[in-house]
């Protein structure tokens, strides 16, 4: 219990302040938890290790959580891992349930964060040993499993897969990086593009563009008048959150938290895979998934509990192998480096004080995040009441600033934002789907690296099936996921047909757009 | 009212960021040619690695000495070179190590001849920890065992990151095998991977027999019990004996300097022919945009000379297991150019 002497008021203030700044970073499109941690990293010099860690862990938890705000209210994922939050959050906000949606997200987040912290505390070294059993092959299969959501995410499976493939194709533009063991050569571009696209399109400008800018373009098309009418309806509906939303959803909450923790502890499998995977599993395993993607609380629960559970998960390999689990912990490791402390398999037994201090900061930051957000939300949620002709220019400005800042001042990132804004708009106009496209984009390059590395290491395609029992289980899950999507596809088609015959029977003039309004 | 909330959020965050940047180093009166905010890009994307650690130590001291706001940015090699290309004002500087010219020698995409394209700045430190490791239960006890095994036709796989510091040791080993066991050198196979965690994973998976690593990153793994899948053992440190001898006596972690000396020449020999042994010190140095004002080069040289004279930085570097190694720009440039020629021969020998 010696570590208790290290916890002073400054420690808790820093963790709380970190959570607050993190939330702000996460909520501004283009600014991420990783960026928040990177900006504050040099401060750990002045603060010392324990106080520095309190601040950084606060930033980490806050930054991951803050992403939910623009995701729900504006359809812009504030961080890549809140992309699945937009699927149900934005439709709810449009129905006037923005506050309710955000409160669901906050509760799911804190549960996810605390479950993962508990897993980290109790099982870190054990799980680290398990995580190294995942070689390139198993990691490829995890990504493939997450990609299989594409099949069940869209209203038409073929269009969904087609959109997903376009996303993967876009993700392969750029070089096959030497730091990934590649050859450093560029592909899928002309020579004159090389100065701009050497490293491909940056993830965040693409995300903000394709969700945010394209949403604004679509809204702008409707004109100002109809916007004002909608607004009145939204105000009258109000919040209506109660904990009973979670009734019958506990399995989802706990399962998604564990999925988030699990994905977090696999180094190299990005954070967005966590929420996508949790969302897929909820969609596959729940009894009624027909409302998912149209404003179902269960989608929010899956997405937000998983992405916050990532925090504890990603700290597992960091603290018990010295390998960061995600991009933010990859920066966080710098706090130890700057203090000259080596993080490796003996870090926890040899630095028990630091270990307990970190756990305290992590749990405390989660609690602060919960109270800050839960009580601030009713004010934040009113953002949707701002007239759109005022709100949209502000959002566009913030998006541009965020895109410019993400790689510390690359103008091409702003053009990326614009290109993908227009692309997102066109894609929806011609009937393709944005969600599968962006999931393909996020996971495509990782899938490629692990696929190529598996083949390089083992030299045969059969290794994907024979590598380990884990691989076999993963194949089982992938097949189940795809089969489920096919069955659901047939069912919903049959139901649509039935509805259509009923509708045409009663009102022969009704168009096929009926399903949009429910 | 709602707009004002939003506004307050943005104003608040701006104020916070401003406060943070101010607290990280107050920009005071700036007399020299170096002005404004200085960004020091490094050739590694990792904040957990030696480049970041080393650069942070030096940049922190330099910022204080010059009274400027300086920040280290881990952007990675290709990005760092391109950022440096764009800025000749001196507001972007770069710190990297021998990889900057080894990448060019190995013909890696994105690497040019640094001696032609940039101004080579002062050297600042050596990381003596570049190491090669085997699993703790490996049949190879020493590097000699590995050379003998390859010489007798056994295939030995070495996980490296291509085109850099981690490959030069591999090339030297291959060269030594070619000298001692002509025609057998192709039995030493490179497994190209990326980060340190990738290399470790190759060892855990049994996909590599030897990996490149470092004392800093792998020391704890060498202290695990033999039945642990993650346990490793050093077989070779590429640094010169002289270099390791300058390290603090307590070494790093719980591995003492005495123990580390077992893995360097003359205990471990990698011949280059003519009774010469291969050694390699990983050195860190500044790189500047070619068109940058020479007065800035001089200003940094002078500031660093003063810092090293004061002696505090040496203590910090040594405690982080770096060997202080300050050479002003001119001297560093000649020295590194010679170093490049030396290693060019080895690379050419095994082509």
Describe this structure in words.
- The complex is a heterodimer of chains A (518) and B (351).
- In chain A, strands 1-2 form a two-stranded antiparallel sheet.
- Chain A is mainly alpha-helical and 518 residues long.
- Chain A is 73% helix and 1% strand.
- Chain A has helices spanning 9-27, 33-40, 43-47, 49-66, 68-74, 83-94, 98-131, 136-147, 149-153, 157-171, 194-197, 203-222, 224-237, 250-264, 271-285, 297-321, 327-338, 347-350, 352-380, 388-406, 411-429, 434-458, 463-466, 469-506, and strands at 174-175, 186-187.
- The model of chain A is unreliable at 227-233 and 507-518 (pLDDT under 50).
- Chain A starts with 8 loop residues before the first helix and ends in a 12-residue tail after the last helix.
- Chain B folds into 2 domains: 31-127 and 281-349, Bordetella uptake gene, domain 1 (D-Maltodextrin-Binding Protein, domain 2); 130-261, Periplasmic binding protein-like II (D-Maltodextrin-Binding Protein, domain 2), CATH 3.40.190.10.
- In chain B, helix 2 crosses helix 12, helix 6 crosses helix 7 (165-180) and helix 7 (165-180) packs across helix 14.
- Chain B has 351 residues and is α/β, with parallel strands linked by helices.
- In chain B, 44% of the residues lie in helices and 19% in strands.
- Chain B has helices at 2-23, 50-66, 77-86, 99-105, 114-117, 143-151, 165-180, 196-204, 215-218, 241-245, 257-261, 294-310, 312-319, 329-349; strands spanning 37-42, 69-74, 92-97, 118-127, 130-135, 156-160, 188-192, 210-214, 232-237, 282-289, 323-327.
- Chains A and B meet through helix 1, helix 2, helix 3, helix 17 and helix 20 of A and helix 1, helix 2, strand 2, helix 3 and helix 8 of B.
